[in-house]
Amino acid sequence: MQWTNLSEQTVYENRWFRVNLADVVLPDGRHLDHFLIRLRPVAVATAVNEANEVLLLWRHRFITDSWGWELAAGVVEDGEDIADAAAREMEEETGWRPGPLRHLLTVEPANGLIDARHHLYWSESAEYIGHPEDDFESSRREWIPLKLVPDMIARGEVPAANMAAGLLLLHHLRLGDG
């Protein structure tokens, strides 16, 4: 039951993404015009301190007109190492420099439309280096007890699926299932 992409044509492009129109053949032989978005990889990072608190950003997303907790994230620049990009984003958006980063997971948030892979990393330490360079990215940055994360997600306070998945895995790794 595999769909086959015969060809793609770019209909719009900028430095962040491309919108393509694909000629797709369905398993029964029919052709389908399918729009898709090609994105750069996204690097995401956070830290969990000795008190099992996770560093989060409270921000507004104008596209969905919603507020929620997120992790620092951004696109990987051409030629940039993904873990280095994650560390850079965390520092720029939070003012905290992570210690050695560990890969947490890689997810595809909307793989029926977008090819972006989100690579999530975490550290067991972070050093405060000052007010965030990109303070416009969030209204505030806080260390939140990891034990609160599942209830926050259930209440819709972490609306982004990639962030919720990463936080739930961190919760499991640090605190177990209990």
Automatic annotation (TrEMBL):
Q: Does the record bear Transferase in its keywords?
A: no
Q: Please tell me whether the keyword Hydrolase is annotated for this protein.
A: yes
Q: Cross-referenced PROSITE patterns, in alphabetical order?
A: NUDIX (PS51462), NUDIX_BOX (PS00893)
Q: Which UniProt keywords apply?
A: Hydrolase
The residues covered by the Nudix hydrolase domain are 38-171
Cofactor(s) it depends on = Mg(2+)
Q: Which InterPro entries match?
A: NUDIX_hydrolase-like_dom_sf, NUDIX_hydrolase_CS, NUDIX_hydrolase_dom
Q: Name one GO molecular function term.
A: hydrolase activity
Q: What is this protein called?
A: NUDIX hydrolase
- Give the originating organism: Streptomyces crystallinus
